[in-house]
């Protein structure tokens, strides 16, 4: 906890410095064209009303927009359309806690720009804003060949079907299915990961469960490493969206 508090003050300091620098720059130069706006992008594309609703209710839309405005590392969003959400078993979303909804949406966001060309060379697992990429947590693998981009979470396999939007800061790719993370949707894998237990615990009838390895050793203490690695990005949010960042902090605690 003390470490987190320290981290938090460091982040605040970091973003204050940055804000001052940006204010100075803004005074010196004419305002640039506005940063991309994830809400506007998805609204314009149409067919993303469920994702938009979730992004708004979790405040992740605001976080993304603030991040786009305040950092230059870029953001990649994997966007399932409404028909992907309606393809989920009935009640799937309603069964999630608010925290799980946040994690689900964060799992669709990569805190860096992945261009279409870079899909071929991306190193797996890809770290999303949901955090830990260990098996049973939030692994996301992307492979590409011959113009086809495959994505697997260990629970679902899907493909990128369309580029919705791409500039030098933001890339939004439509995916055919909702990316379900193991941590939430494959409890057997999640339970097996921290302490490889009886392999029989892995439920074969779990809908959509893959055959991925479930015995990879994992560090429970690693819950904080996602935060540490993400703190630069987080730092950029904080000055402008303290409330939003607290949600993320809570999630990782
Ligand atoms: C982003 O777009 C939405 C919808 O078009 C708008 O309501 C919102 O104010 C915009 N946000 C920013 C930061 O410009
Ligand atoms: C982007 O950030 C600057 C301060 O750095 C702020 O003045 C501006 O209103 C922000 N723009 C949007 C669209 O949020
Ligand atoms: C993508 O998935 C399809 C169908 O499972 C498979 O045939 C193809 O080889 C995969 N391509 C890559 C690059 O993983
Ligand atoms: C993702 O790729 C890594 C490295 O190749 C592999 O160890 C891991 O099992 C894969 N995870 C999934 C869910 O496919
Ligand atoms: C996903 O694809 C991999 C490799 O093609 C396969 O082994 C696995 O069973 C698939 N998982 C699901 C959930 O379809």
Automatic annotation (TrEMBL):
<keyword id="KW-0472">Membrane</keyword>
<keyword id="KW-0336">GPI-anchor</keyword>
<dbReference type="GO" id="GO:0005886">
    <property type="term" value="C:plasma membrane"/>
</dbReference>
<dbReference type="GO" id="GO:0098552">
    <property type="term" value="C:side of membrane"/>
</dbReference>
<dbReference type="InterPro" id="IPR000782">
    <property type="entry name" value="FAS1_domain"/>
</dbReference>
<comment type="similarity">
    <text>Belongs to the fasciclin-like AGP family.</text>
</comment>
<feature type="compositionally biased region" description="Low complexity">
    <location>
        <begin position="191"/>
        <end position="201"/>
    </location>
</feature>
<feature type="region of interest" description="Disordered">
    <location>
        <begin position="191"/>
        <end position="224"/>
    </location>
</feature>
<keyword id="KW-0449">Lipoprotein</keyword>
<keyword id="KW-1003">Cell membrane</keyword>
<keyword id="KW-0732">Signal</keyword>
<dbReference type="InterPro" id="IPR036378">
    <property type="entry name" value="FAS1_dom_sf"/>
</dbReference>
<comment type="function">
    <text>May be a cell surface adhesion protein.</text>
</comment>
<keyword id="KW-0654">Proteoglycan</keyword>
<feature type="domain" description="FAS1">
    <location>
        <begin position="35"/>
        <end position="179"/>
    </location>
</feature>
<dbReference type="Pfam" id="PF02469">
    <property type="entry name" value="Fasciclin"/>
</dbReference>
<dbReference type="InterPro" id="IPR045003">
    <property type="entry name" value="FLA_A"/>
</dbReference>
<protein>
    <submittedName>
        <fullName>Fasciclin-like arabinogalactan protein 11</fullName>
    </submittedName>
</protein>
<feature type="signal peptide">
    <location>
        <begin position="1"/>
        <end position="21"/>
    </location>
</feature>
<keyword id="KW-0325">Glycoprotein</keyword>
<dbReference type="GO" id="GO:0009834">
    <property type="term" value="P:plant-type secondary cell wall biogenesis"/>
</dbReference>
């Amino acid at each position: 906890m003390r470490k987190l508090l320290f981290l938090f003050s460091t982040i605040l300091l970091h973003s204050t410095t940055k804000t001052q620098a940006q204010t100075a720059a803004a005074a010196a130069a004419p305002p640039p064209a506005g940063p991309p706006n994830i809400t506007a992008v998805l609204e314009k594309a149409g067919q993303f009303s469920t994702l938009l609703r979730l992004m708004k209710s979790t405040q992740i839309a605001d976080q993304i927009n603030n991040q786009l405005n305040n950092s230059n590392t870029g953001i990649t969003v994997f966007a399932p359309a409404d028909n992907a959400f309606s393809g989920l078993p009935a009640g799937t979303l309603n069964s999630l806690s608010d925290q799980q909804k946040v994690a689900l949406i964060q799992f669709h966001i990569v805190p860096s720009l992945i261009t279409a060309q870079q899909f071929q060379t991306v190193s797996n697992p890809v770290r999303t804003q949901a955090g830990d990429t260990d098996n049973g947590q939030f692994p996301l693998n992307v492979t590409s060949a011959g113009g086809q981009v495959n994505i697997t979470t260990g629970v679902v396999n899907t493909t990128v079907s369309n580029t919705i939007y791409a500039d030098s800061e933001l890339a939004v790719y439509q995916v055919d299915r909702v990316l379900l993370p193991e941590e939430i949707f494959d409890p057997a894998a999640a339970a097996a990961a921290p302490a490889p237990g009886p392999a029989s615990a892995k439920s074969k009838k779990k809908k959509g469960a893959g055959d991925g390895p479930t015995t990879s050793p994992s560090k429970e203490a690693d819950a904080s490493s996602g935060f540490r690695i993400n703190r630069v990005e987080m730092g950029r949010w904080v000055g402008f969206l303290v409330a939003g960042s607290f949600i993320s902090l809570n999630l990782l605690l």
